[in-house]
Amino acid sequence: MTAKRYIVEHLDEELGAWSQLEYIKIARETGNFCLSSIPDSLKQNLPETLTSTPGFVAETRGVEDVYGQDPALKARVCLLDPAAAQELSPEDGELFDVFLFGGILGDDPPRDRTSELRKKGFTGRRLGPKQMTTDTAVRVTRIVAEKKIPLEKIEYLDFPSLQFNEHESTEMPFRYVKGEDGKPIMPDGMVELIKKDADKAIDDLF
Ligand code: SAM
Predict the structure, then answer these.
(1) With a 6 A CB cut-off, is 176 part of the ligand 1 pocket?
(2) H helices of the chain, where?
(3) Which among 14, 93, 108, 120 is least surrounded, fewest beta carbons within 10 Å?
(4) Residue boundaries of the structural domains of the chain
(5) Residues 28-84: tens digit of each pLDDT
């Protein structure tokens, strides 16, 4: 089996702290992660914690320029698309070498910004009916396409509640993979960042 490549096409204005943590996690887990369509100005200013992660590459070209010109190459790219008609299956590991994701933070309700990539005509596959964070979508894709475990056999945690202390908790409106410790798998530092953002939102009210 050819080594798989995981591409996130940068679609947001900035590269926020959440995305940085997600991308570090994706690079570590996959060992072959490309962040495409990164403006030159942003490429010069990417945080070292991300650029020094083995397996991470930043690409200024968009995925269409890299893979869209040659039909044979394009046919090996799979867009993970919440609106695709077909679910990702273990057999797709033989059909595709490159898995493409939208570089968009999750939103509730989802605004279907993956449509910006759908328009480019890559073959789409869905990872079930629930919105996942980008690093979760990559994790689930690897489990299905590389480990050959069907989507419905994966243990998920839907909309988990993160309990910060006795009084504070927040519900995450996404689907996660359940870790061996029974908790949702998240990037290192994410729980702390979510708590900080929640505290800031409360402070901003006053
Ligand atoms: N709310 C976003 C939208 O409007 O499209 C989805 C953002 S999601 C956090 C980031 C990326 O993860 C998507 O662009 C898609 O590639 C992938 N993704 C997340 N959940 C998915 C699902 N259930 N099926 C397929 N892809 C998914």
Answers:
(1) no
(2) 17-30, 40-44, 48-51, 63-67, 71-74, 92-95, 115-118, 134-145, 190-205
(3) 14
(4) 5-148
(5) 999 999 999 999 999 999 999 999 999 999 999 999 999 999 999 999 999 999 999
The best mutation among 23, 104, 107, 118 to test binding of ligand 1, ranked by most ligand atoms within 8 Å of the C-beta, falls on: 104
pLDDT in tens, 99-153: 999 998 877 887 888 999 999 999 999 999 999 999 999 999 999 999 999 999 9
* Structure confidence by residue, pLDDT tens digits, 153-194: 999 999 999 988 888 889 999 999 999 999 999 999 999 999
Ligand 1 pocket check for 132: Cβ under 6 Å: yes
Rounded Cα distance, 91 and 190, in Å: 33
Mean pLDDT value of segment 79-91: 97
Contacts with 200 (C-beta within 8 Å, 6 or more apart), sequence order: none
Q: Which atom of ligand 1 is nearest to the CA of 114?
A: 5
State which of 12, 79, 132 you would mutate to test the pocket of ligand 1, scoring each by most atoms of that ligand within 8 A of its C-beta.
132
